Amino acid sequence: MNLNTFPHQKIAGFDGIRALAVVFVVLQHLGVWAQADQPGFVRDKLSLLLSGGTGVQAFFILSGFLITILLIKERQTTGTVSIVNFMIRRSLRIFPLYLLFCIVATLSFLFSNKNIPWQSLSYAYFYAYNFVSVQNYVALLGHTWSLAVEEHFYLVWPFVFAMSFAHGRLRLIIGSIVFIVSSIALHFFLVHLLISEQYFVARWSFIAGSSIALGCIGALLVADGADWKFKSRIFSTRTSLALGVVLFANSLYISTGSWFIENVVTAHIRSIGLLLIILWIYFNQRSLLVRTLEIRPLSYLGKISYGIYMWQGFLLSTGPKRLPNELWPPPPHVGLFMLIIIAPLSYRYFEQPFLKLKDHFIRPTAIKLSTTSIDI
Question: Residue ranges per domain, the chain?
């Protein structure tokens, strides 16, 4: 499959991955895995594999992969990359719903019986919630950290791409690998200094952005090029898919007693596994797996996944526990029911009008791919 066969359509299977990813997040916030009676395989191993964190990893990798493909195709077909148009498209996709969520969240605090967390709200409004301290953290706003990571990454990546792509992909690939390795080292250093006790350092942009960078590497490796057929033969094999699954499921069999290895290193290995699975899907568009991911319910959930992600944070918070006399969020089962109603309405009547405007900022000769990812 050559990307040129997709001038005006999506890459099949990706909406299904988004659907599964957002389901992981919702299940996490409903407290499904916490219902396990005692620590063991389900709570410690399987829950880590199918956690909301894994869902966010999938969104990050998909976002980096798709957006880098778009940048490559625009550079190849027009000779340049319009960073202004890129930023406008990103803004139309992310800002309207995000701002609406922040306003609704602010109103909910104004009408609540609690003190208004103005400092915490300011972090959310300015896309900085990944840097909020543990002391100022508010669960209702907690999920906005991932939006902050992605926006910070894309304030930098288009400029780096535009300046370096003309000199060859290898420079960008090596630079991205250095970024990922450095992020792991920094994470270890911050944990060692006990800074992680005061901040959610795993969510800091330089650290969490490594998953987006991995997706960018995937796109740089496979998007067209003289050796495209050779890369296709490598990443489209059953061996590649099997390796991806084994790496993705590494938390099931890695047991070292080291917190850093079992929670940080394994997360990066899982990301590599996810990328291999995504690349296999990219090269096997007619496979049974892709057809399964494209079934209508999964495909639809993937299309509205951004809205699901934003509203589940408001309706479910980031866990099933509620404080005594807490007016909001509602009980988990009520929040889930409201989410089922609100997310489709949000997509149809609020998000789509802004999404349609994006086409005005795609240069006529540049490829148009569906990138309706959760964009987190």
Answer: 3-361
